[in-house]
Specification:
The chain has 409 residues and is α/β, with parallel strands linked by helices. The protein has 2 domains: 149 residues, Alpha-Beta Complex (Aspartate Aminotransferase, domain 1), CATH 3.90.1150.10; 239 residues, Type I PLP-dependent aspartate aminotransferase-like (Major domain) (Aspartate Aminotransferase, domain 2, 3-Layer(aba) Sandwich), CATH 3.40.640. It is 40% helix and 12% strand. The protein is built from 15 helices and 12 strands. The strands form 3 sheets. A 7-stranded mixed sheet has the order 2-8-7-6-5-3-4, sandwiched between helices. Helix 5 packs across helix 11 and helix 14 crosses helix 15. Bound molecules: pyridoxal-5'-phosphate. The site of pyridoxal-5'-phosphate (PLP) has 13 residues, from helix 5.
Length: 409
């Protein structure tokens, strides 16, 4: 039977879901897997997850939790022990002091974002989303009934939102500003000064809250201290939800643990949303997350060294391709090159590569490399390469991309 014969009739689906797009990164990965099943050699650089193993002490803590039979429901907000560990993390790393009633644990940072938007948006409410941004932000806003207000932030501002652009995007309906630093897909990192400039604008608009997505906090290549909105201004802290998690820093994407901290009233509303959906993330994963947050970080320099080596190699190779230009990203594990110089060229069959989406499909078809078009992140004319892959895979992928681009006329 074909897949479409199982598809629910159009009338069954809600307007919200009919209007939402599936995740473009997952779609590229699905296409890549389909080609692999057909026997093609495909290198997948479309996924955002570290390729390292979860640190041993974290895995051991999970096994111990299983042996202690920690297999019951936990508090919706997460176990008290984990929320205490999260509070210690925020104080230690970010100088932010939260009580356990100001902290929620969920199934990845993704659920925290989702809970917060569901808990706060009414139809017509606007959310400022500086782009390029993670593919899920605008869709999550739409699924919650809100309207994403897309603000393009290109290479000229380091892919970052400026005070002037923020001011121009705020209306009386604005409820949130979503900020992600280090950024997926650009790797951009906001400095304290840049956040202070945004805070100054926000001080004139007390109805606007800030959702700070710090999941890539630990994946940074410069020595400057990490800046997060709640820490730059106490006034802003009173209306900021700071979101983080263990997925990226501890190579724990599949364990599904994220956390957020903010005013107790907001967290209470988010707990209500979560109590009617997943209840909480796995009790075993929560035990593992305590070990991650409280444990040694001696594995991190090794992760960062490998990421930095791969970043430098990938960016150098990309810049060696005629028609491609890439700045060195200071954080996360993605390169986000411009492909403007390739647009308008023709492939072997005379088809014109009109857009970044055409280019991504061409690279998958001809080079057997899966990347994600910039339009998926609302910034066309670019593509995203995840360098969370082995050196050998990256070397091969860059050679194939270079050859495929050189064939364009
Ligand atoms: C910017 C950003 N936020 C949140 C997430 C979700 O992370 P988690 O695995 O904790 O749900 C991702 C994952 O790719 C991401 O790139």
């Amino acid at each position: 039977m074909t897949e479409t014969s199982h598809a629910p009739s159009h009338a069954l689906l809600s307007g919200r879901v009919r209007g939402a797009k599936p995740s473009a990164t997952k779609e590229m990965t699905r296409l890549a897997n389909q080609l692999k099943r057909e026997g093609r050699s495909v290198i997948t650089l479309s996924q955002g997850e570290p390729d390292f193993p979860t640190p041993r002490h974290v895995r051991e803590a999970a096994k111990a939790a299983i042996d202690r039979n920690e297999s019951r429901y936990t508090d919706v907000a997460g176990t008290l022990a984990l929320r205490e560990a999260v509070a210690r993390k925020f104080e230690r790393d970010n100088g932010l002091v939260y009580g356990v009633d100001q902290i929620q644990v969920g199934c990845g940072a993704k659920q925290l974002l989702y809970n917060a938007l569901q808990a706060t948006l009414d139809p017509g409410d606007e959310v400022v989303v500086p782009v390029p941004a993670w593919v899920s932000y605008p869709e999550m806003v739409r699924l919650a009934g809100g309207t994403p207000v897309i603000v393009r932030c290109g290479a000229s501002t380091g892919f970052k939102l400026t005070a002037a652009r923020l001011q121009g995007a705020i209306t009386a309906r604005t409820k949130w500003l979503m900020l992600n630093s280090p950024s997926n897909p650009s790797g951009a990192v906001y400095t304290r000064q840049e956040l202070l400039a945004l805070a100054q604008v926000l001080s004139r608009h007390p109805q606007v809250w800030v959702m700070a997505d710090d999941v890539y906090e630990k994946i940074r290549y410069e020595d400057t201290p990490f800046a997060t909105p709640a820490a730059v201004s106490p006034e802003l802290a009173a209306r900021t939800l700071t979101i983080n998690g263990v997925s990226k820093a501890y190579a724990m994407t599949g364990w599904r643990v994220g956390f957020g901290a903010g005013p107790a009233e907001l967290i209470k509303a988010m707990n209500l949303v979560q109590s009617q959906s997943t209840s909480h993330t796995s009790s075993i994963s929560q035990a593992a997350a305590i070990a991650a947050l409280d444990g040694p970080m001696d594995f991190l320099p090794g992760f960062l060294q490998a990421f930095r080596r791969r970043r430098d190699a990938v960016v150098a190779r990309l810049n060696g391709i005629d028609g491609v230009a890439c700045d060195l990203p200071p954080g996360a594990f993605y390169a986000f090159p411009s492909c403007q110089g390739l647009l308008g060229r023709r492939d072997e069959s005379g088809q014109t590569i009109e857009s970044d989406a055409d280019l991504a499909l061409y690279l998958l078809r001809v080079a057997g490399v899966a990347v994600v078009p910039g339009s998926a992140f609302e910034l066309p004319g670019h593509f995203r390469v995840s360098y969370a892959a082995s050196d050998a895979e990256l070397d091969e992928a860059m050679a194939r991309i270079g050859d495929a681009c050189a064939q364009l006329r």
